[in-house]
Every structure is written in C-alpha cells, then in structure tokens.
C-alpha cells in the first residue's frame, strides 16, 4: 500500500502541533522510529496481512457481502485494496482451491487491520469549529489522567462488556456484544450523536474499542462518557447505566484528580459536571444500600471540591419528550414554588440513611447550596431526624412558616402539621420547641384545626388524644374541613370513633358544606358509613351548593379530596360500597328508588354493575329492596344478572317484568351473556323458551368459548336470518384466526353482506405508533372499543404458514386487505404475508372512510422502520404506501422519517430520504415535531447534521400544542453541541424569533440545564431587555 494513503494533511499536523509540543519530548529520529515500531504504528500493510485480507474479502464476496479495509483507523481506498490484493495473491489453482475450502479467515488483531461491511451512511461530516466538544481540551485531560491511569490499571479489572451500556444505551443501538458491529458500523453509530474533531476519527475510535489496548479502550470510553454526560445523552437514573459509568470514571482515575476542572473554561466540562451532579442527587431518592450512598457521597464531594455549584433549583416533573417517547404531561410553565426542589430538599427526601443524608446536607450547606429552609425543615421532620431538624433551624429554618399545600385536607402546612402526621414523639418535640421559643404564649395558640386534621388524616389516634388534652377546642379549617372529614375519607375507623367521642359529628357553630357521611360514601368506606348511621347521622343531608367565592373554593377543595359530591344517597348505597343499611334508611326516609347518577344509570343497574364486589346474599337483598320500593327496569338488568351468574337474581328480575330477550349495554343479549358465562342450564332454558333465538354476538361468544353444541345450534338458526350485522364479519375473522377452516367455510356459505367488522384480537400501542397483534379472548364488554377492519387483519399477525389457507379463503370470498391489515402485517414484521397480499393484487388504500376510528391506524411504514426492515419498506412502497403519510390530527403522530429520526436509526433515515421522504414534513398538531426537532430533542447530532445538509429548516415552527422549535428542544434537554450546531446553521435569535429564543433559555433553566442556558445567553449577549422578557409571566405557555 502506498504511504500517501495514510499521509496526514497539513491541517491535521497543525491541529496536533500543540499536543506534541505539550508532551515536551526531545527525541532523535531513530528513537522515534524505534518506538513507533514497538507500538505497532505502521506505514504499510505487510505481504502476509494482505494475503489474509484478500482471503477474507474473497470469502465475504462469495457470501454476497461487500467489504472495506480499515487500517490504523483510516479507510483504505478501494483502488489501493484491489491493487495490493492482486499483487500479493497466490494465483496457483491448488492454492486458490485450498483457500476456498479453508475455514473463515480472520485478520490478526495485532495488524491494526479490520475488514468489514461499508456503511451506506458513514456519518462523517464537516463540523462547525464552534461545537463545545471540538473545543474541549482533551489533550489537557489526557495529560492530567496519565499518572492516575497508570496507578489504577493494575488494580482494576476492566470488563468491556460491562461498559457497553454506558456507551450504546440508545434505543435500538444497544447490544451486549459490540464486536458484532464491525469497525465501520460502530463508527457510524458513534457518529449518530458525537462529532469528529478530524476526518475518520470515529473509525479510529471504533478500532480502539474493538481491538485496541486496554489504555486506548479506557480513554475512548471515558471520552464518550464525558461527551454523553455533557450533552445529557446517558440515562444515569438507570442502575446498570450508573454502575457502568462509575466503573469508567473510577477506573480512568478521573475521580482522583484534584485539579479545578472549571478552570478549563469548557462548556463540555461544565455540562459534564452539572449532569453528573444532578444524576447523583436524584439517585439519592432511590438509594437503599449504605455502600451505594457512600459512592454517591464521594462523587458529590469530588464535584463540589472541583468547583461545581450546588446553587440550583431542579424541577421534578417529567420532560415533555421522554427517552424513546413523549410524555403526556401538559407543559404549563408553572412558576409555583411548590413544584421546585432545591438540591437540599432532594437529599432530605431521599431513601438514604439519616447518617449519610445528614453528611450530604452539611456538605451542601457548606458549599453554599441554594435552599428553601422551611420545606427542608418539614422534610427533616418527616425523616424523624432531630439532628437534621436542629441543623436546619440553626441555619434559619422557621417553625412558624406556612407553606401552600397542593393537595390533601390541610390548608397550610407548618412544622407542627407535618409532625402531627409523622409521630407523637415528633409532635411533642416541635411543641416543646415552640413553647421554649415563646414562653409567654400558651401552647393552645399553636394547635389549630390543621394540626388536628393532619393527625386525623393519618389515623394518629395517640396524637389526636394528646392534642385534644392540650387544647379541647376543635374547629374547621379554612376549607370548612374538620378532623372527622379527614379520618372518614381515609378510612380510619378508630380515629372516627375517637373524634365522635370527643366532639360528635359536627363542631358547634360550624356548618360544613358536606357531611362526614358524604365523604365516607364517596370514598367507599362502608364500615365508617355504618358507624355514622348507627350514631344517627342525617342520611338525607345534601351537600350545599356554593354561592359565594369562598364557598365555591370550598366545594372545589371537596372535589379534589373526594371526587364529585352529588348528595345522592340511593346512588351512594348502590355503588361500590353497596350498603343495605344506608339504602334502607334512605328509602324509609322517602328517597327515590329510581334515582340515577350523572351518566343516567339507575340505582338498580348500579347495584348489578357493582355486584361482583359483594356477596350474593346482600346483593339479592339490595335488589329485592329496590324492586319492592318501586324501582323500574330500564333494560339490561337481566343481562347484568346473568353475567354475575346469579340465576336467583335473574328469576327475581323476571318476576318484576324482566325478559330473557333483554339487551344490555353495547347490544349484548341475554343469550350472549349466558354463553360467555358458560351456564349450561341457562342455555337450555333459553333455547327451550326461544328455539329460533340467534344473534351475531352470541355466535362470536360461542366461537370464543369453544361451545360446539351451542355453535351448531346457532349455525342452524343463522341460515334463516339476514346476515348483515358487522359482528358476522367478526365471527368470520375469529374462525380464520383459529385456523378452523371447516367453520370458516360454513360461515362463508352464507357470507355477511358487509366486509368490515370489529376485530377483537387487535390493539394499538400509541406510544410506538404501531399496531400490535395479540390473540385474546372475545369479550362483549370490550367490543365497543375494538378497531374495525377486514377479517384479514386477524390473520395478518400470524405465522404465514398457519394463515395461508384462511387468507386464501377470505380473498376468494371478496374480503380485501384494508389499511388495518397492512398495519398489522407490518407490526408483526410479517414480510411473507405482505408479499402474499401483493402477489394477489392487494394494494394499500390510504383513505379508509369505512373503518372505525381510522385516525388510530398508523402508517404501516412506521412498524417497518421500528423493525429496521428495508425489504418490508420496499414492499410496502410498491403496495402504494405513501412514504410521507402521517395523520397530523393524531396525538404525537409521526411520519416514517420522523419516527426513524426519533429512534436514532441513521440507516433508516437515509433509506427513507432516498425513497422520497420529506425532511420538512410538518409536525402533528399535538405533541408533534419535525424530523430536525426530534433529532435536536433526542441529541442525535449526526442525524441532525445530515438533515440540515438535506435542507431541513432549522427555524421550522413547532407543533400547535406542546411543541418545540429545534432550539427549544435542544435547550430543554441540555444538548450543548446540538445548540451550537443549530446556532451555526442559522437558528434565529432576534426579531420575530426573540421570544422563542428566550423561551429556550427558560426551558433549559426549568429542567436544571444551566450550562445550556448560559451558552445561549452568551451567544445572544444577554441584556436587561432579555431578562425582562425572561421574567414575563406565561412565556412558557404551551400555546405560545
């Protein structure tokens, strides 16, 4: 091979000039040549290696594989490979035969040569020099680490397979054996998210990972971890990822250095330290072992000692875009301090031991962590740690602070209300502190309604008694809630009994808007309902409607605590608690036995609906009581009783006017319910009463239960009926799915007039945009939710050999492959079935107006992309599927290209673009995103560069609801290099885009990515005007 193929350019020499100078070596040419030989730095590939390369390429060619040669991290030109292999090839016939018959050749690892499959998309680009990673002083870090690495390599066992997840834990790229990739594939995968500082750097990096020395392997993994953490790519909240990352950081010696990394003035270092700090703090919430806590403690001490600032608020709700999928949480941009946690609060609310938590809390306070001492104090009280309580009080925490309580019964949360919910010892301790700080005040001044409510809500009888002994005054709080309300709602019977003994059901002078009985009924507490009734509580008390602003606020609070209060005692008694005593008392007092709930369901129907939750005897008594008092049958009651398999109830309902031909909800007949219940005597009774009885739902139920005798009776009756119901199509599909060709042909002797019906074995996983096939039992209760389609859809997810004959029968009888069929076949990765359809002239119909809820049926290409099946994609395109079709009205809808980008599948991205995919396809209206916006959100830097090179609009508008511009998405997720790429590619900052830019800064800070926010601020030249806009209320409104 000619030396020119590996000769570095002048630009590369200049790039490494400083590094060579920093090394400070003064050596002769002979000394340098000797060392290069010893280190196996080669100028040329020797003859024996070329022979092995030729053998390997020939073997791969016979297997139909293309090949490329990588030498010392550089791709050898094809003409050079051809020239050198031809020159060194043994052309003797017997030598060639021997080579063909030999085992698979392997190029020796020590030759620094790899023969692998060339990648259609190498992910090699010209990058802007302003990217943070390209400005990262890796050479300085390598010099710093060299001494520490030498110490640790002898003592630490490096297991490459244990470190893989820390590098490649990215959706479909994860593997347990990186060697199966090959150098080219591994380099391309790295290039999906990481830029190159020089041409073909990732090839060299991949070769080091696959066959380099332990030192080379370790430094490359460390580099990738630093880059990944700086861009918030790695998910350190997963245990395996955290362990692998810690192994790399400890083994490299990085955690041993004492140099202030902040002095390197690197966005990469700032982002790395910030995200590692956040991950360590968050892991405290889940740490259970002392050893793990000590490891986290060591990381935090190291970060703080090296200059990481603990001053930050971190918001604890989910990101709009989760790893792998969108979250459904609305992005409202709330600035309510209740939703923010300081680092100190995260520590105090963690699962770590009090010893470790106390040490970390002191460490944070020592380094000037921002704090909300009052919330921190409450967390310390919950931990029952007096040392922490005293420490926080010494730093300025207040025993008197009243904090907003976002939910629950307490109006204002104080140190004493928290203690009352925690334990008697804590309550006494806080009261003693309050008394010692206020010797002139009686202790009764500190015991208000919220303190007693807090204790009652948690069933703390001892605390209730103690507080009552100190202060006999019991009042309602600001919401009109009394301690008895809280105890009744939360099911604390003994507390209710205690409170009733102390002050009865009501407090003198207080008229609550709803009674404790209302609360107990709606919270489904039958034991407490019974207790209150025995105490002669008014069962006809009705919750008053609110008229004043204050009363309306109280009603809203009641709704938050105990669902919607309606005041319907008969409905309450026949709902989930099924209280005969309450029902009897209500009816005796004149309540209406035909009372209905808000949905129009009668009390009798409710009792039968909730009957599964009660013993047969009480249920029978409740139904009988309602009927004796004049309850009327509205329809469906007999079906409900049959489903309970309670024929005594059936007879009772028939006695009061029920019919065996009754039809229930969703058209379920008594016959269908009886077949599903598999009640033999009931079926005999029905057929004796109505010999010609038949309906399509019953046919489906008979097929599902395998009741052949009933099935034959129904088939006989079916011949005399019009075959028009859509469930007839369901029955045809079920027969085909079961592979019961005899039944299928019997049904097709009298085929249904319609060709579309509900398909019971299908469901849609919207998060993946793919229809999943799953065989499940037909259930009449669920059929209203079935997706309608061709019966071919039921066999599209089966093994093709099992489905071939049934599919042929269906096609022969005029059933067509609809949109659902193609989607299911693609979801099951069923290439053979799709090919069969195409061979039988079936074509994809994009507009399927006859389908039930067609907007939920996704583009079949989405599934093919998920399966990484190019052959299936090509077939679907030939069948007429539009590569750009996606339904923008679908929640978080995706085009195939957008989906491939979100998955980080660079090969699919290239394939779809070459097939005509629009790189600027607009986003779905709600939670949608363009391809580039998704690349920015997910941190797929290489894919983003590829899209930009193909004309993707950097400033494309976001989705109408819950959308992000590319810059906003990158900022919200802390993607530093992505931010700089977008800015270098024309992301706008001023004019009409100024507000969006400031929103991006706000989003970064909102999610704790202060480094990303600072990078953006610096790029704009942050001004007072910008800060004023930043503070504007509602700037993060999701509609903005």
From TrEMBL:
Extent of the ANK repeats: 512-544, 892-924, 927-959, 962-987
Superkingdom of source: Eukaryota
InterPro entries cross-referenced by the UniProt entry: Ankyrin_rpt, Ankyrin_rpt-contain_sf
Gene3D superfamilies linked to this entry: Ankyrin repeat-containing domain
Keywords on record: ANK repeat, Repeat
Coiled coil stretches, renumbered: none
PANTHER family the UniProt entry points to: ANKYRIN REPEAT AND PROTEIN KINASE DOMAIN-CONTAINING PROTEIN, ANKYRIN REPEAT-CONTAINING PROTEIN-RELATED
Protein name: Clr5 domain-containing protein
Organism, scientific name: Xylaria hypoxylon
């Amino acid at each position: 091979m000619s030396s020119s193929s590996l000769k570095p350019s002048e630009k590369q020499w200049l790039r490494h000039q400083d590094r060579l100078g920093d090394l400070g070596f003064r050596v002769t040419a002979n000394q340098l040549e000797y060392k290069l030989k010893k280190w196996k730095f080669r100028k040329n590939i020797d003859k024996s290696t070329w022979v092995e390369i030729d053998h390997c390429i020939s073997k791969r060619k016979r297997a139909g594989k293309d090949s490329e040669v990588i030498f010392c991290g550089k791709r050898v030109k094809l003409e050079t490979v051809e020239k050198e292999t031809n020159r060194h090839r043994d052309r003797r016939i017997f030598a060639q035969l021997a080579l063909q018959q030999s085992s698979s050749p392997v190029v020796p690892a020590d030759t620094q040569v790899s023969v692998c499959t060339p990648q259609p998309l190498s992910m090699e680009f010209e990058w802007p020099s302003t990217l943070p990673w390209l400005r990262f002083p890796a050479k300085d870090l390598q010099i710093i680490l060299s001494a520490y690495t030498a110490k640790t390599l002898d003592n630490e066992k490096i297991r490459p397979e244990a470190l893989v997840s820390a590098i490649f834990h990215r959706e479909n790229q994860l593997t347990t054996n990186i060697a199966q990739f090959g150098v080219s594939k591994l380099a391309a995968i790295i290039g999906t998210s990481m830029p190159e500082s020089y041409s073909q750097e990732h090839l060299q990096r991949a070769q080091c990972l696959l066959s380099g020395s332990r030192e080379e392997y370790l430094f490359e993994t460390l580099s990738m971890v630093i880059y990944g953490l700086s861009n918030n790519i790695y998910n350190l909240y997963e245990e395996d990822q955290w362990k692998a990352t810690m192994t790399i950081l400890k083994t490299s010696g990085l955690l041993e250095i004492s140099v202030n990394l902040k002095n390197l003035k690197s966005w990469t270092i700032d982002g790395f330290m910030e995200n590692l700090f956040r991950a360590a703090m968050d892991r405290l919430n889940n740490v259970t072992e002392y050893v793990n806590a000590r490891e986290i403690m060591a990381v935090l001490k190291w970060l703080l000692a090296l200059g990481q600032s603990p001053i930050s608020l971190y918001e604890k709700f989910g990101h709009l875009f989760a790893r792998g999928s969108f979250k459904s949480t609305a992005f409202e941009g709330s600035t309510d301090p209740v939703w923010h946690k300081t680092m100190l609060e995260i520590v105090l609310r963690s699962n770590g031991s009090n010893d470790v938590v106390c040490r970390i809390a002191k460490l944070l306070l020592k380094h000037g962590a921002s704090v909300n001492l009052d919330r921190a104090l409450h967390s310390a009280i919950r931990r029952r740690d007096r040392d922490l309580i005293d420490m926080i009080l010494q730093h300025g925490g207040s025993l008197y602070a009243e904090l907003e309580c976002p939910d629950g019964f307490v109006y204002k949360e104080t140190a004493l209300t928290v203690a009352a919910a925690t334990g008697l010892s804590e309550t006494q301790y806080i009261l003693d502190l309050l008394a010692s700080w206020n010797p002139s005040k009686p202790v009764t001044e500190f015991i208000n309604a919220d303190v007693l409510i807090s204790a009652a809500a948690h069933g703390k009888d001892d605390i209730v008694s103690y507080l009552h002994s100190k202060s006999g005054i019991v009042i309602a709080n600001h919401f009109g809630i009394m301690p008895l309300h809280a105890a009744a709602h939360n099911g604390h019977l003994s507390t209710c009994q205690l409170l009733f003994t102390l002050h009865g059901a009501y407090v003198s002078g207080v008229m609550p808007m709803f009674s404790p009985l209302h609360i107990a009924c709606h919270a489904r507490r039958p034991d407490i309902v019974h207790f209150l009734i025995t105490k002669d509580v008014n069962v006809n008390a009705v919750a008053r409607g609110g008229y004043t602003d204050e009363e309306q606020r109280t009603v809203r609070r009641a709704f938050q605590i105990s669902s919607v209060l309606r005041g319907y005692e008969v409905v309450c008694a026949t709902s989930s608690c099924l209280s005969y005593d309450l029902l009897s008392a209500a009816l005796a007092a004149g309540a209406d036995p035909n009372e209905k709930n808000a949905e129009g369901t009668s009390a009798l129907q409710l009792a039968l609906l909730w009957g599964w939750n009660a013993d047969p005897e009480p249920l029978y008594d409740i139904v009988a009581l309602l009927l004796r008092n004049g309850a009327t049958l509205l329809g469906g009651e007999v079906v409900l009783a049959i489903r309970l398999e309670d024929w005594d109830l059936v007879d009772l309902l028939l006695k009061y006017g029920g019919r065996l031909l009754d039809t229930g909800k969703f058209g379920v007949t008594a016959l269908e319910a009886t077949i599903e219940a598999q009640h033999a005597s009931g079926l005999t009774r029905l057929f004796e009463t109505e010999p010609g009885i038949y309906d399509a739902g019953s046919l489906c139920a008979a097929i599902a239960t395998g009741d052949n005798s009933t099935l034959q009776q129904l088939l006989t009756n079916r011949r005399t009926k019009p075959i028009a119901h859509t469930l007839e199509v369901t029955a045809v599909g079920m027969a085909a799915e079961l592979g019961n060709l005899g039944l299928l042909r019997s049904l097709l002797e009298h085929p249904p007039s319609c060709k579309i019906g509900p398909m019971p074995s299908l469901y849609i996983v919207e998060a993946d945009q793919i229809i999943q096939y799953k065989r499940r039992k037909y259930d009449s209760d669920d059929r209203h939710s079935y997706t309608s389609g061709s019966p071919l859809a039921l066999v599209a997810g089966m093994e093709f050999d099992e489905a071939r004959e049934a599919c042929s029968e269906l096609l022969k009888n005029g059933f067509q492959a609809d949109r659902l069929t193609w989607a299911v076949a693609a979801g099951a990765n069923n290439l053979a079935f799709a090919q069969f359809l195409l061979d039988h002239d079936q074509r994809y119909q994009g507009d399927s107006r006859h389908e039930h809820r067609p907007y939920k049926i996704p583009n079949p290409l989405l599934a093919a992309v998920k399966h990484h099946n190019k052959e299936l994609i090509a077939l679907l395109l030939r069948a007429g599927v539009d590569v750009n079709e996606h339904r923008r009205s679908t929640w978080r809808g995706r085009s195939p290209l957008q989906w491939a980008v979100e998955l980080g599948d660079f090969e699919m991205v290239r394939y779809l673009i070459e097939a005509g995919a629009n790189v600027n396809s607009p986003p779905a209206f709600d939670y949608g995103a363009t391809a580039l916006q998704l690349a920015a959100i997910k941190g797929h830097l290489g894919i983003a560069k590829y899209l930009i090179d193909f004309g993707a609009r950097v400033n494309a508008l976001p989705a109408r609801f819950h959308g992000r511009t590319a810059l906003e998405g990158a900022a919200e997720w802390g993607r530093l290099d992505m931010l700089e790429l977008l800015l270098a590619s024309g992301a706008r900052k001023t004019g009409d885009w100024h507000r969006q830019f400031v929103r991006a800064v706000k989003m970064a800070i909102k999610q704790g990515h202060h480094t990303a926010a600072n990078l953006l601020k610096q790029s704009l030249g942050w001004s007072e005007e910008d800060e004023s806009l930043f503070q504007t209320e509602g700037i993060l409104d999701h509609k903005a």
